[in-house]
Amino acid sequence: MSHENSSTITELVLVGFSNHPLTEIPLFFLFSLVYFANLFGNTAVITLVIVDSSLQTPMYIFLCHLAFLNIFFSTFVVPKMLFNFLANKKVISYNFCTAQTYITLFLESTECFLLAVMALDRYLAICYPLRYLLIMNWSVCMKLALGAWIFGFFASVVPLYLTILPLCGPYVVDYIFCELPILLHMFCADTSLLETVMVIGCVGTVFFPFFLIILSYLRILVAVVKIDFVKGRKKAFSTCSSHLIVVTLYYGTGLIRYMRPKSLYSAEGDKLISVFYAVIIPMLNPFIYSLRNKEVKESIRRVMEKYKNETKQQITD
C-alpha cells in the first residue's frame, strides 16, 4: 500500500453499484424519481409553513429545519451518485469526497439533536398543555433549533478536523458516497485516536439525543395513561406518531448498520442501508408528517383554495 500526502490526490474511484452494471440505468431512473420526490415533499413542507400562519408553531418550525436538512443531505449525495450511474469513469474528486465526509457527519449529528428537540417539544405539548406556549415561545424555539445545528457542528466537524489523517492508496471508495466509517480503512498511520474520538462523538451525538427521546416518550406515555377519556389519549398519541415513525426509521437503520454481527456484514448490504438513510428516509419524512397529520392536510386544502380563488379573480379582472 502506497503512502503519499493527501494534497497530491486529485480523485478517488467511487465504486457505487458499478459491480452490478445491468442495474445502473434502472437505479438511475428510480433514484432520480426518489430525489425529486424528496425535493418536492420537503420544499412543500417549508413553503406551507411559510405561507400558512396556522402552521407557524414550534412543531412545524422544527419540521422545517428537518426538511431543510433532508434536502441538504440528499443534494450533497444523490446528484453525484446519479452522475456516476451514467459515467464510464466512476470517480469523485478528493476535495468533494472530503466535503462529503464533513457535511454528512455534520448533518447526521444535527439530525439526532433535531429529533431530540422535536421529542422535547411533544413532551411539553402533552405534559404541560396550558403552559406549553409560554415555555416553548418563539425565542426558545429558535434557540433550540439553532442549538441543534451548533451542537451538531461542534460535536462532529471540529473533532474530525483535529484528528483526520491523510489517505493511503489504493484510492478506492467501495460505497455510494464518502463517509467517515468507510474512509477510516483508507487512512494512513495509527487511527486509534480518531476511533476514540468517534466513539466519544457517537455517545454525544447519537446515544445522548436518543436517551432524551426515550425519556421524553416515557414521560409522555405516563401522562397519556393518566388521561381518562379515549379520545384524549388518541389525540395525544396522534401528535407523536409521525415523529415516532421518523425516529424509528432513522435510528433503526443506524442500529442495523452499526450493531449487527460481523457475520452479517457485506459491502453491498452497507450500500443498501446507506441508500435507505441517505435517499429513501429524507424522501419519506415529509410524506409521513403530511399524510398522517390533519393540520397539514387542512393547510394544503386552504392554500389550494386560496390559489384557486386568486386565479379566478385574475381571470375575472
> What are the secondary-structure elements, in order, as H or E?
EHHEHHHHEHHHHH
Q: Could you report the average pLDDT, rounded to the nearest whole number?
A: 85
Low confidence ranges = none
Strand content: under 5%
Provide a count of the helices. 11
What percentage of residues falls in helices of 4 or more residues?
A: over 70%
Biggest beta-sheet profile: 3 strands, mixed
Written account of the structure:
The protein is mainly alpha-helical and 317 residues long. It is built from 11 helices and 3 strands; from the N terminus they run E-H-H-E-H-H-H-H-E-H-H-H-H-H. It has helices at residues 24-51, 58-86, 94-127, 132-135, 138-154, 157-163, 180-183, 192-225, 230-259, 267-291, 294-316, and strands spanning 11-14, 91-93, 172-173. Strands 2-1-3 form a 3-stranded mixed beta sheet.
Secondary-structure blueprint of this entry?
Elements: E1 11-14, H1 24-51, H2 58-86, E2 91-93, H3 94-127, H4 132-135, H5 138-154, H6 157-163, E3 172-173, H7 180-183, H8 192-225, H9 230-259, H10 267-291, H11 294-316
Parallel strand pairs: 1-3
Antiparallel strand pairs: 1-2
Keyword list:
3-stranded mixed sheet, 317 residues, mainly alpha
Brief sketch in words of this structure:
The protein has 317 residues and is mainly alpha-helical. Helices cover 74% and strands 3% of the residues. The chain has a three-stranded mixed sheet with strand order 2-1-3.
